[in-house]
Amino acid sequence: MRICSKRADGFHNLESAFYPIPLFDSLEFVESTKTTLSIHGTEVDGLPSDNLILRAYDLLKLGFDLPALEIHLLKKIPMGGGLGGGSSNGAHMLTMLNQHFKLGLGFSQLEELSAELGSDCPFFIRNQPTFVTGRGEIMKPISTDLQGLYLVLILSGIHVSTKDAFSGIHTFSPHGEVDSLVADNTPKNWKGYLKNDFENSVFSIHPELDEAKQWLYQNGADYASMTGTGSTIYGIFAKKPNLARLPIKGEIKVVKL
To answer: Staple partner for 152: which of 16, 64, 211, 235, CB 3.0–4.6 Å?
Structure first.
């Protein structure tokens, strides 16, 4: 992720590439007499009323006559690791409501609505490889295809606040060729050219995350980086890796793309 400039509205202009990976939560709803949200599986911080799922429901209810719903979320995507779990929940709630109640909203309308939930939410409406600019709301499909490769996620459980991540951004990266680099489908060519600008500030606070990244390279990763503002460290491998014990506290997930 490149941070290119500070905007007048307080946000930052960025360049990044988003790629969908096979990690899933389960979301369902049934009509009821009162709107409620129950969460199972991984513990979710914060009040249910602040959850993007309920905020998505409230957002659509402003323009449509929706019934009360009993909503259930089975949470499997780790929280606070920059994997987009909360953002995907909010975006998919919009999509589900639109489909189930035949609201007639198109992709562009759903993306515009989801942007009111959060900068990362619009990506999950189409859920395809995407190059994003602006504050995350300007999206362009890219041809990146990593099928057959292996993704290793190191989940440290470290919570990185957005404030801490941005606190170390004192200089900005020039606009580059992120979209064309990522679209070449060759992760081993990305090292040295694609870097997450948040790594400097986050690694200075949590050096063990840098240690995890270097460990992935030492074990044969074609490319390794940190997700967004962190704290998940990921590596892309051409073949399924045989990994030794992690050098830091946490767990490993290996998924085939």
So the answer is: 235
Does the N-terminal peptide bond of residue 180 adopt cis geometry, omega within 30 degrees of 0? no
| Number of domains, the chain | 2
Q: End-to-end CA distance of the chain: give it in Å, rounded.
A: 21
- Strand pairing category for 2-6 and 26-31: unpaired
Q: Are strands 130-133 and 12-18 parallel, antiparallel or unpaired?
A: antiparallel
Tell me the pLDDT tens digit for each residue of 62-109: 999 999 999 999 999 988 788 999 999 999 999 999 999 999 999 999
Residue 183 lies in a domain: yes
Strands (E), the chain: 2-6, 12-18, 26-31, 36-41, 69-75, 130-133, 138-141, 150-155, 223-226, 233-237, 251-256
Q: Which residues contact 127 (CB under 8 A, 6 or more apart)?
A: 20
In order of 99, 130, 228, the CA distances from 18 in angstroms are 24, 5, 10
CATH number at 74 reads 3.30.230.10
Q: Examine residue 8 and state whether it is found in any structural domain, yes or no.
A: no
Helix (H) or strand (E) holding 212: helix 207-218
pLDDT category at 229 given cuts 50, 70, 90 is: confident
The answer to whether residues 181 and 149 belong to one domain is yes
Last residue of a domain, one of 127, 152, 183: 127
pTM: 0.89
Query: What tokens appear for 249 in the block?
Result: 């506290």
Are 251 and 155 contacting, i.e. CB atoms less than 8 angstroms apart? Answer: yes
Domain at 162, CATH number: 3.30.70.890
7 within a domain of the structure (yes/no)? no
Structure-token match 């600019």, residue found: 133
